[in-house]
Amino acid sequence: MDKTVKIRAYTDPASGQPASRQKEQDIELAAREAQLDDERKKSLEQLKTIVQLREALKLEQAKTAEVNKRVNELESGLQQISASSANELARKDAQLEAEMKKAVEAESKCKELQAQLKQEQAKLANMPDQSRMLEAKDKELADLKTRMQDLSGVLSKIISIAEAAKLVGKP
Description:
Blueprint: H1 19-169
């Protein structure tokens, strides 16, 4: 950008200063005005930058607020998930303990049944001896029945002889 410098062509008789001095002041004044224009331009640019930065700051603050809101929502969700996970874990622990108690009870019941099974097996192992004894007693009983029938037959003969003797002995 071209800068124009205003210089007076003649000296003002009222001022009473020589023209060269006036020229120096005019040059100095023009330089200061140019410097002032530069400063104004810089100030305007800085003002524009400030406005842009404020707008960017507002946008960033809005984004930050949105992010904070989302973070709070996520934290809340995380807390809910943590609480539900803790509850679920406690429930699973309780179920596990109940299952462990059932397993212990089942194990003790299994041991009892094993002991009973061993007793039954021992009884069954003794059964052949007992069945032999029963067979022997059955044989003995059959022999006794046979003897009893024989004795019953003999006793009937004795009774009939006795009755015959009574009848003969009665005159």
